[in-house]
Every structure is written in C-alpha cells, then in structure tokens.
C-alpha cells in the first residue's frame, strides 16, 4: 500500500507535537520522515534552564526517545540540516546529500538567537542560548572561568544568568531597556524582579549599550566594553537579546516571508502542500516564541494533515511565567493598559507581592502578578474567554476564591470583611 509521504523539517517541540496530534487522528495515514539538525531526539527546550542550574540532567528533558519514533514507523534523520526544498519535484535535500520526497511538507525550523552586530561577536566564548550544545558550553565554561555577561534581560537572559550564578560564576546582565522583562512586565514588577535577582548576587546594567567585545589576544573574549568606554571582565558572553525566525530555507524555495514564513489560519503557506508552524511561522503578522501558541498551531496543522480540514488557528493570547526557582511571576494579555482601560493594583511590599489587573469595557484584558501567582491560571482563563467581570470587580484583585463569594447572596453587608486581608496598599485608577 503506497501511503502519501509526509516530511517534517525540524525535530523540535512544535514539529513533534504536530506529529503526536496527527498520530492520534490518523495513525496510519502517512509515511513520515523527520529531519533534525541536532544529534538528539525531541527534547523540552524550555527545560534547558533547570539543566543549566543543575536541577535536572539532559536525560530528564527528553520528550520522545528514539524508541518512540521507531514504534510509530517514523524515519528519523538526525544531525542533518535541510538546505534545499525543490517544490517542482517535491523533494527536500539535506547538507549530506540525503533526499526525501514529499506529498505534504511541514517546515518547523524554529529560530536562532540574535547576535549583536558588534566587534568581537565571533570570539570564542561568545554564544547564544538556544539548545543543548549552548547549555553544555555554559556548564563547561563555569567549571574553569569566573566572569559571565548576559546581554538581554528577557526570559532567556534571566534564566541563563540565574543558572550561571548557581554554577558559581559572577554574572552581570546588560539590558537596553529601563526594567527587566519589559515585554512581559510593567515597570513596577520589573523592578521587583531585579531586586529579587540582585539579592541572589546577580548584577545589572540597565539602559546600557554594548559597544565591543574584547579579545584576550588568543581569540577568546575577555571583557565587554560599553558605550562611553567602561569595561567589565567577561570570560563568557551569552547573547539573549532576542530571536530571529529561521526563514532562509523557505525564502530560497520562493515561499513568501515577512518576519517569519507567512501562513494562513490553516498554517499553510502559499503552496498548499507546504505548512509552517512554530517560531519560524508568521501568522497575521505575529511570530510566536512561547510554547502554548506553538502547541495550538500544532493541533490545527495536524487536523488538516489528517484531512479533517475544519480547524482554524486565529492567534493566541499569551501568558508568561518565569522559570527561576523561588521567584513567582506571571503576566498575560494587555497588562500594560492604555487608553480606554482602567487598572486595579495591589501592592504588599512587606511580603513582596504586586498584582495589577487591566479592565476594558467590563472585561479583564490583562494581568501582571509578582510574588503570588496562584490565581494566574484563573485570570488567564478570564482574559481568554473575555468574561464580563463587572459583577466581580470589587473582589477581582483578591483572586478566584474571594471573587466567587461576590456572586453569592449575602444576608448582611460584608463591609468589614476586607480588613482580614493583609494588604498594605490598594489602588484603583
């Protein structure tokens, strides 16, 4: 029996999740081939931070071992990068000459770290933070060197900084913006996060431009020079200043790209035989870099590959949770607010708790939590569902349990009840 041929370019979380969903819907439909650029089976990339921090081993983060591929009859080609897509012959070609013909093709090539275009960016000891190889290099460097500089105060940068600090290195984070996680937190929460990380021994240079990486005379980085001339020691420089979708392969094949491979609501490119998902794809002008939207895309893509054809991806409301041990942080939706919104904030500096909820037209549209994220999932569900929360407004900031009480009839006024809640400052604007 000649089955249609499905080729997957990329063996990461988005691509393999698509295969998992497809195998549930149509386990015997395709003859499947997967190309993976790394020498490893599919692993949980977001768990590299606990590996760097020494909390888990590489073996612990493997999601699908080699037996999984073999058990599902999947031809897995590791350590091979696809260099050409021949759309006319419906053929993909890898760097070692391996070829695979396809009837359906899924591009899941992910993204690459953005390397700052400064002098010295190719020196030994200057790396991105993306995969197992990067993580191993950081662990090895920490055994023999002392000073690390992380460029970028986003999620990856802070996780790298925390892991290197736990490995014993002196770590400085250099960030261009005025507060950490400026795309995931407001200023108040970002400053609270910085204070918490400073208490762990991590140093910060905010609003600072990197001008040059200096050579020790043997081709290895030894220092970072900032705009203005100041220099600090650096045996290791981790670039965590953003990512760039890997679209070169798609561009060479003539597929339209604009900050990602352009896809429709069915995750198809302008070639209906070719799909793109994950960090390499641009859907309605957005290339997502968090795992939840990628898994949403995987479900839709699998639905169409299984020839069901009814699912549509309409974008995702994203949430953020920092994976630094002992620091609870959560944000979702439009947490910054703006014209036409109102914000409710709770600040408890003694216990290190800050909460901010953003409401628009009676609907919760965003949340930013620091120190107490127990209700993050509940707030996120309200944001996703666009729930009318006007009847909960006065208690919304106190979380699901207390907000639910406001829907119950009260025998008498409950005006004294908030005094039992340990809140030092409550503001509404």
TrEMBL record:
Please name the InterPro entries in this protein's record.
FAD-bd_OxRdtase, FAD/NAD-bd_sf, FAD/NAD-binding_dom, FAD/NAD-linked_Rdtase_dimer_sf, Rubredoxin_C
The record's keywords, sorted A to Z, are:
FAD, Flavoprotein
Which cofactors? FAD
Q: Which Gene3D superfamilies did the record assign?
A: 3.30.390.30, FAD/NAD(P)-binding domain (3.50.50.60)
Please state every residue range assigned to the domain named NADH-rubredoxin oxidoreductase C-terminal: 319-379
- FAD/NAD(P)-binding domain segment(s): 5-283
Provide the family line.
Belongs to the FAD-dependent oxidoreductase family.
Protein name stated in the entry: Uncharacterized protein
Source organism per UniProt: Pseudomonas solani
């Amino acid at each position: 029996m000649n089955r249609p041929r499905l080729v997957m370019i990329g063996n990461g979380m988005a691509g393999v999740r698509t295969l998992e969903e497809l195998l549930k819907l149509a386990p015997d439909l395709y003859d499947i081939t997967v190309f993976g650029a790394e020498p490893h089976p599919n692993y949980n990339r977001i768990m590299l931070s606990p590996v760097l921090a020494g909390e888990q081993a590489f073996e612990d983060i493997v999601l699908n071992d080699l037996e999984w591929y073999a058990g599902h009859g999947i031809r897995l080609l590791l350590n091979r990068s696809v260099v050409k897509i021949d759309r006319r012959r419906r053929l993909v070609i890898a760097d070692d000459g391996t070829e695979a013909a396809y009837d359906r093709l899924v591009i899941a090539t992910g993204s690459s770290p953005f390397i700052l275009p400064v002098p010295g960016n190719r020196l030994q000891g200057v790396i991105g933070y993306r995969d197992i190889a990067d993580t191993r290099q950081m662990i090895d460097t920490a055994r023999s060197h002392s000073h690390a500089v992380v460029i970028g105060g986003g999620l990856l940068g802070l996780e790298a900084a925390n892991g290197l600090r736990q490995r014993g290195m002196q770590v400085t984070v250099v960030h261009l913006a005025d507060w950490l996680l400026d795309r995931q937190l407001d200023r108040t929460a970002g400053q609270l996060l910085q204070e918490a990380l400073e208490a762990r021994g991590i140093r910060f240079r905010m609003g600072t431009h990197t001008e040059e990486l200096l050579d020790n005379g043997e081709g290895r980085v030894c220092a970072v020079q900032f705009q203005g001339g100041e220099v600090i020691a650096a045996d290791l420089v981790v670039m965590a200043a953003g990512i760039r979708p890997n679209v070169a392969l798609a561009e060479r094949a003539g597929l339209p790209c604009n900050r990602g491979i352009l896809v429709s609501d069915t995750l198809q490119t302008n070639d209906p035989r070719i799909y793109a998902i994950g960090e390499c794809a641009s859907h309605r002008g957005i290339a997502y870099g968090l795992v939840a939207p990628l898994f949403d895309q995987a479900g839709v893509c699998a639905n169409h590959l299984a020839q069901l054809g009814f699912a549509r991806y309409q974008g995702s409301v994203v949430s953020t949770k920092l994976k630094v041990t002992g620091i609870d942080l959560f944000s979702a939706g439009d947490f910054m607010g703006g014209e036409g919104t109102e914000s409710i904030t709770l600040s408890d500096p003694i216990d290190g708790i800050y909460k901010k909820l953003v409401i628009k037209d009676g609907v919760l549209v965003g949340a930013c939590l620091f120190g107490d994220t127990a209700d993050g999932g509940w707030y996120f569900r309200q944001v996703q569902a666009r729930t009318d929360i006007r009847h909960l407004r006065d208690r919304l900031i106190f979380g699901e349990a207390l907000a639910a009480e406001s829907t119950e009839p009260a025998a008498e006024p409950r005006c004294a009840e908030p005094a039992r809640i340990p809140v030092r400052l409550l503001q509404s604007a």
